Amino acid sequence: MAHPSEAGAEHIPGDRIEVPPPRTRVWRGGTLEAHDFPVAQVSDYLEQDDTVVWVDLCAPQRADLRVISDELGLDPVAVEDAVSRHERAKIDRYEGYAFLNVYVPRIRDGELELYEVSAFLAKRALVTVRQGPGFDIDALVKRWDESPGVDIASTGAGYLLYHLLDMVVDLQLDAVQALDDEADEVESMIFDEAFAVREIQRRSFRLRKNLVALRRVALPMREVVNTLLRRDLRMVAPELAPYLQDVYDHTLRVGEWTDSLRDLVANLLDTRIALQGNRMNEVMKKVTSWAAIIAVPTAVTGFYGQNVPYPGFSSHSGFIVSSVIIVVCSVALYTVFKFRDWL
């Protein structure tokens, strides 16, 4: 499977953006106890009972991950995947934790931008690694604080991961909706009388490129969520199964929607070619009809321009007869062509 960047849609900021410091949180008994503490204290909190810890790192280097790697005992291969760009959307299992990689899409000025987000999931710890500030981590924290129904004390870090995946899939649905709206606009342009060929070609190509890029990162989400749902792996608490099943249903909807949009875009391109051919046929009919009408006075004047005697030769009556023939034949041809909708 090709990387998303090969589709030209991967968003990599060109300017150096100020990287925010790591964010940390710890819950005890389902209640927020502390936040923004040093990463080096993560293991101390995890040694205590009934605690759940979250760490967020934005655009980290390998050295930045060394501390959290030592705190949680992360595998070097997983750490390498977390700092590498263009990893495919996936989930890998390791001893005592799992590594996930997903993509958050956003449509801006008609272009699809993809933001890579990685996560390390342990029983009582979640570490999120963002390649840049494009993913709104504050919105995720707000979901954690405002979402009722699930007790974080009984579900552990899986509760945090569920909201992360739910937010990612919701944003993918928003992106598909935006592409669907773009397809409707292209369809309207195709059937418009103006028929701006160059603009239709540009927008249809951009739509197809964005759709392919989104589909490449959205389809693997089925495997990610389905792996978390497997009871034999026991990666999340059983209480989260109904919530993850809802996320899984949304991933199916994204996949089906992208498939239908892909077929729609292909049909739009075929329709554009067919309509363009029909318009060309209409132009050719009109050109041919006018050529036939013009051929009449050409033939008559050519006949009367002969240097041999004929009825009306060198007389005023000959001019009148030739003019009448031209007008009558031209009007007759125009009427016939108009009746047959050739003009």
Which helices and strands occur, and which strands form pairs?
Layout: E1 23-28, E2 31-35, H1 42-46, E3 51-58, H2 62-72, H3 76-83, E4 90-94, E5 97-108, E6 111-121, E7 125-130, H4 137-146, H5 152-155, H6 157-190, H7 197-218, H8 220-229, H9 241-304, H10 316-339
Parallel strand pairs: 3-7
Antiparallel strand pairs: 1-2, 1-3, 4-5, 5-6, 6-7
Low-pLDDT sequence parts: 1-16
**Shape verdict:** rod-shaped
CATH topology of the largest domain: Beta Polymerase, domain 2
CATH H-level superfamily of the largest domain: CorA soluble domain-like
Organism: Actinomadura montaniterrae
Protein name: Magnesium transporter CorA family protein
Transmembrane segments: 287-305, 317-337
GO molecular function: cobalt ion binding; cobalt ion transmembrane transporter activity; magnesium ion binding; magnesium ion transmembrane transporter activity
3D architecture notes:
With 343 residues, the protein is an alpha+beta fold. Helices cover 56% and strands 15% of the residues. It is built from ten helices and seven strands. Strands 2-1-3-7-6-5-4 form a seven-stranded mixed β-sheet, sandwiched between helices. Helix 6 packs antiparallel against helix 7 (197-218). 31% of the residues are buried. Mean pLDDT is 84; it is low at 1-16.
Give a short summary of the structure.
With 343 residues, the protein is of the alpha+beta class.
